[in-house]
Amino acid sequence: MNTNDNLMEKIVSLCKRRGFIFQSSEIYGGLSNTWDYGPFGVELKNNVKSAWWKANVYDRDDILGMDAAILMHPKVWEASGHVDNFYDLKSDCKSCKKRFKVADLKDPKRCPECKGELTQGRPFNLMFKTHQGPVEDGTGLIYLRPETAQGMFVNFLNILDSKHPKLPFGLAQIGKAFRNEVTPGNFTFRTREFEQMEIEYFVKPGEADKKLEEWIDYRFNWYLNLGIKKENLRKRPHTKDELAHYAKACTDIEYNFPFGWSELEGIANRTDFDLKQHAQVSQKELQYFDGTTKEKFYPYIIEPSGGVDRSVLAFLVDAYDEEKVKDDVRVVVKLNKDLAPIKVAVLPLLKNRPEIVELAKRIAKDLKKCFITVYDDTASIGKLYRRQDEVGTLYCVTVDVQSLEDKQVTVRDRDTMLQDRIGIDNLKKYLWEKLNS
User: Fold this and answer.
1) Predicted structure pTM score
2) What percent of the chain has pLDDT over 70?
């Protein structure tokens, strides 16, 4: 059985070995806490985003999608409170010079690394600053957005004028955000550059409490439906002293990572704080007009906000499995079929037989029209199976000598390792039914 630390080491090793996630700028020694997604990692990440978009935009009638710019007018961040309130307290060690987040320290006076004396905690704004225009002076100061939410709030009026939605309705967005974290870490869990999946759901104030509970359950079940084990997922309501300044209530959906229970997604009742703030600072009318009651008011906002990178990591950890097969250990990543980077791999049994290779390549080319398919002949069939198991490939199609005569191939199931002999003419239908059952 894996220990938690051992499991995390294995996940990091798998990600590097099989092309899921690489250290950014690695040939130059790397840049701390920044990560690049390789060929299989980008497919998994895109599948997570597609599954989220389908569940929250395509499968619902009350959510509209959008994509706001990363760079925004600096007054956006004044109105939102980020300029004044978005900071951590930091302490520096006088001996080893390392910097720590005060909230993470057990002893605020002693360095957890060298036991040296720590400086008193000082506020550290988490927003990345940059400059717009050719001259780097105060007039061109702007920020890399620390969250995607504000882009939806400042477009509230545009959505009302262009789409005329009725309450309740929501806006959904997936995009990059940037936070100059004092102590990032735990692989891709906390990084300075990350991707968010956020919804801003506008409701009548009197319906906010009910809608909050509905969204908590809806988002919790999304993770379960994509294969997360129920025992590794929990809901944790925030206590009053940990609520953000704008929130009336918030519940985190947490996953039991190898490093402990940590947040995957937060679902908050932001009240009417955001629209009121932007209306005051921008001097624009951002109230909603109810045509039935003839009332104008600021809607309350329910915000489900999850991390793409955290979700990818959770799905990988939860799917990782080791099975004893004879005298060997089989590593298999049992990702949900909607998330698996590769659906089908076509493998020739003998790569030194041109007619087998030619048939296998022809089959792979045909399957690519319907499924994410790869062809591989770079190792023995046993090693090819293991390689596909480690990246979560659902089905392996083996072309052998007999295939040349009977026009059939062997299809191997990732999870059961059971094999079916299927006619080539019927292969596409067989896989389609398997993948869409």
Assistant:
1) 0.89
2) 96
